[in-house]
Sequence to fold (101 residues):
Amino acid sequence: MEYIYAALLLHKMGKPVNEENLTSVVKATGVSPDEVKVKALASALSEVNIDEALKNAATMAMAPAAPSAPAGGAAPKAEEKPKEDEKKEEEALQGLASLFG
Fold:
């Protein structure tokens, strides 16, 4: 994750996001950079419009919440769902138990 932060910092400061700059930023934090990760990130971001990616991420984060009740009628009873979930959980646990004898 520190490599992504380094790339975002470089982008914010108007610096090119390349291997040399990523390595410098990671080294400045006191961490020894992993050259494979630096190369992979620099290569992956070379064809990405970071501004556009950030705008898309921001709009996805602000998506409207789902309605609390179904459009066609009344909301399901709160007591019914946990019982169904408990049955499914029990079945799943029984399946897991059979794996271990």
About this structure: The radius of gyration is 24 Å. The longest helix spans residues 80-100. The domain at 2-61 is CATH 1.10.10.1410 (Arc Repressor Mutant, subunit A).
